[in-house]
Recover the amino acids of this structure.
């Protein structure tokens, strides 16, 4: 039913009604190249042939080639099973055919008169938007992951990791700039610092050491 409906809906909206493109586009309409047309013809022929591989038993006894081909696979599970009565096969074929033809007629009658499709509403809008699966996936997975990645990029990596590395470099640079003032090249200052150091060591040894 669904296949019959959407295929003939596609046929009506594509080949029936007025051309919905521009005049410039109408002058460039052409058949698809052989690289596309030939595979479609081959698939169509194979689809017709495939329909006769597994024809129901009501048309010919022991003519279901697909059933005989798969018999070794399902032999163990088919013991004691009963074949479908011919009346059931006719009923199933008749119901499926009638339903498919009904959907074909419904699609043609609805879309052949006005192939231009209006904006869907209600449940049709939900189906057109794929039940908003992409939007839900984006809201629940994509956006949180992007937000987490932005947090790690701007906070953890740039501020914490890069800040620690760059801060260590700045600290070493600052310390070296301050320590270089000790190397003034003045001998008197060196002697003064040496004397001050000796006095400090003397005080520590004399008064603070127990």
């Amino acid at each position: 039913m669904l296949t019959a409906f959407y295929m003939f809906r596609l046929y009506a909206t594509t080949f029936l009604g007025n051309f919905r493109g521009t005049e410039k586009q109408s002058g460039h309409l052409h058949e698809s190249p052989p690289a596309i047309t030939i595979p479609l013809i081959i698939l169509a022929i194979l689809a017709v042939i495939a329909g006769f591989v597994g024809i129901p038993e009501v048309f010919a006894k022991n003519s279901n080639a697909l059933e005989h081909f798969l018999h070794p696979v399902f032999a163990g599970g088919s013991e004691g099973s009963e074949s479908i009565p011919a009346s059931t096969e006719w009923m199933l074929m008749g119901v499926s055919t009638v339903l498919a033809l009904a959907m074909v007629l419904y699609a043609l009658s609805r879309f052949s008169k006005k192939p231009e499709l209006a904006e869907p509403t209600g449940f049709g809008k939900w189906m057109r938007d794929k039940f908003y699966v992409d939007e839900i996936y984006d809201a629940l997975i994509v956006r949180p992951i992007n937000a987490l990645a932005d947090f790690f990029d701007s906070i953890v990596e740039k501020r914490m990791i890069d800040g620690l590395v760059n801060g260590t470099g700045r600290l070493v640079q600052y310390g070296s700039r301050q320590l270089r003032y000790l190397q003034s090249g003045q001998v008197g200052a060196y002697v003064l610092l040496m004397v001050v150091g000796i006095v400090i060591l003397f005080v520590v040894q004399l008064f603070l050491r127990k």
Remarks:
- Helices lie at 2-15, 23-26, 34-51, 65-74, 86-111, 123-128, 133-179, 187-208.
- The mean pLDDT is 84.
- The chain has eight helices and no strands.
- The radius of gyration is 43 Å.
